[in-house]
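Reopening this one. Same input as before:
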Amino acid sequence: MVWSILNAILLLSVLVPQGHLIYDGKEAYPEFSTTSGASVDAIALLSAPPGEPSRDALIDQVGRTTFACVDGSPRLFPVGLNATLASGAGDCTDLALLRAEVLRRNGIPARPVHGIMVWDAQTFRTRALHVEVFGKGVAVHDWVELGDGGTMGAYEGDPGIRCIKTGNGVCFQPVFEALGYL
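Same output, byte for byte:
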């Protein structure tokens, strides 16, 4: 039964958007917004704090900056970094790809990874495609894994949400690459 539920989630996530971020509509950086185009190079420059930043400060800055540039609206397929930044639309897949690129351009080893996200359905609500089984929400999710094993976008610090890595790259990356989306 559990295996068939996971197969259903994986199949449905190919057909509909994979996630929905919560976005309050406020732009943290007016120079870069979801309504105007911004290049990946511009985001990489904005993400680098002045002076000699600590690695943690840079990672925090990248997290906030990239989140402000992706509005969280679901999309069926990723369309690339420039299109994501130009339109401001994207889900966890687009955000993971953007964050990994910006971190790498700032000298921090990072890669997108995918897996299953599990949470208590009574305490965490989402509009993401998910199923609820025995009071637990289950969904496919993409996030970033840092070179030191840390993560970004895996709901770090929230004990009610657990992300279980199942592979490297974003969900269905071979399919997206074959179709020309990545």
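So the earlier flakiness isn't reproducible anymore. For the record, The chain has one domain: 2-179.
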